[in-house]
Design goal:
Strand order of the largest sheet: 9-10-11-8-7-6-5-4-3-12-13-14
Number of helices: 10
Largest sheet: 12 strands, mixed
Distance between the termini: 35 Å
Radius of gyration: 19 Å
Number of strands: 14
Order of helices and strands: EEEHEHEHEHHEHEHEEEEEEHHH
Helix content: 25-40%
Structural class: alpha/beta
């Protein structure tokens, strides 16, 4: 059977990367993501089953998807997640399966996830300071997160990246300590400019601690950094290496340096909606297709049509920007 044509949008971007959220629930309440009070979660009946996710991924791989990242909410809250990981890592043609987690449950689950075939981890950690951790997450769980992170390192996961959201007036003091921590233990720290995806719609551009500001701080307090010549131009992060050879840092500068022109990602929410952009205001209802008797060909065409509708970019820096109707936890990190 001839190979299916790749997923190419009208701007000639080829899509081979799929983000899959398995839950919108989380065990922390980061201020830039969720509100502290009542939060509207999807009903359990609306959440895709592992069998539905596996079917969709197999179809997506046949269309050219080679990388999958499992996200949430907090994905480790989903029962028997290693079972899903094992299903995904067994799919022929899928070259990479990765996971994003806040690490609170990683100490208990690292071994079973590794046994299921998972190797790549991104750990969300904004600070090593307990007071600021509580301020950001509204939970006193820093020690637990660090134990999970170290357990993953001990288990053999590699690479392990630390995702740190950068917010002006809040996390400047955390930039250098996280970088030093990464250099000491072999983690690549990735600084992410805070984006308008909070549950209370309070984001303001003045809150953004930009890539250039972080770079200047790191060069001043940690050491010389140079852009990595081997970096993947389609990757969302801009990679810099320390001149002394001791590690690297990455930057996801969605606000100050948007990378939309190189985007190769599509996203599936926990409740089965396919999105062509993190900031999309429209979605494709894949769940209804999966549960309504649609054929593989019909679902594949829905994926193709979603990619064809993809816009040029999110326009965060323009007056016409409209925040997505969902917060980050409901879309998937």
């Amino acid at each position: 059977m001839p190979a299916a044509p790749p997923l190419i949008d009208t701007f000639q971007r080829t899509h081979d990367n799929l983000r899959i959220s398995v839950t919108d629930h989380c065990n922390i309440r980061c201020s830039y993501c969720m509100s502290e009070g009542e939060t509207a979660f999807a009903a359990r009946s609306e959440i895709l089953s592992y069998e539905e996710i596996e079917r969709f991924v197999r179809l997506a791989v046949a269309l050219g998807i080679t990388k999958v990242r499992v996200t949430g909410g907090e994905p480790l809250l989903r029962k028997n997640l290693p079972g899903l990981i094992a299903k995904l890592t067994a799919i022929e043609g899928l070259r990479e399966v990765a996971l994003t987690t806040n690490a609170l449950l990683l100490e208990e689950q690292a071994a079973s996830l590794y046994a299921a075939g998972l190797r790549r981890l991104n750990v969300h950690l904004d600070t090593l300071d307990r007071r600021r951790f509580v301020q950001i997450t509204r939970r006193d769980e820093l020690d637990r997160a660090l134990r999970g992170l170290m357990k993953a390192r001990e288990t053999g996961f590699a690479p392990i990246k630390i995702n740190a959201v950068a917010m002006k007036g809040l996390t400047e003091l955390d930039v250098a300590p996280l970088a030093q921590f990464g250099r000491e233990y072999g983690f690549e720290v990735r600084y992410i400019e805070v984006m308008p995806l909070d549950g209370q719609a309070r984001w303001d551009r003045s809150q953004v601690l930009t890539m250039d500001e972080i770079l200047a701080l790191l060069r001043r307090e940690v050491g010389p950094l140079e852009a990595a010549p081997e970096a993947d131009p389609r990757a969302p992060e801009q990679l810099y290496r320390y001149r002394d050879g001791r590690g690297a840092v990455g930057f996801i500068a969605s606000v100050s340096r948007p990378f939309c022109l190189n985007c190769n990602r599509i996203r599936l929410t926990a409740d089965g909606k396919l999105r062509y952009c993190l900031f999309a205001i429209e979605e494709t209802d894949v769940r209804s297709l999966l549960r309504g008797g649609a054929s593989d060909a019909q679902i594949a065409e829905a994926v193709r049509e979603t990619v064809r509708r993809k816009w040029l970019g999110h326009e965060i820096n323009s007056a016409s920007f409209v925040p997505p109707p969902r917060a980050m936890y409901a879309i998937g990190g």
